[in-house]
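Protocol step 4 of 6: structure prediction from sequence.
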Amino acid sequence: MGSRTYSFLTLIFAALLSGPLSAQSCRDDAIWLRGDWGSVRLRVEVADDAEERAQGLMFVEQMPPGAGMLFVYETERPTAFWMKNTLIPLDMIFADAQGRVVKVHQMAIPHDETPIPSGGPVQYVLEINGGMAAQLGIAEGTEMMHPAISGDPVWPCE
């Protein structure tokens, strides 16, 4: 399948995941992202304690399109991730305390132990299948909506 077809299918998939926003849209198992490119809802598992964050997506053999893991820290801080024992390529989306994306690291290499730094203080890291961020247009400035993003979020749950 050519990259054009893949891109087209990804956009259709994203459109199917997106839908009207409502109070029910803000759920622990889903995260919304929006930018100039539109919006998308992804299914997520939340890793919000040290043990869950340490395990992350290690040993996961495949992840469905439209799925990911949201790492939630108690406070904003610089962090770094690596791919030890991670079997699939991932995009890492780093966001500040307000849910604004400050860095996207695309196509992290499975098993690579080189640290991937956040580049500054972050409170949330979203990992999705490698290549999805580029396909969807997720970049710095993209906004996230999830119940874990509290305080003064750029895109609050209603």
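Step 5 (inspection) to follow. Residues 3-17 form the longest helix (15 residues).
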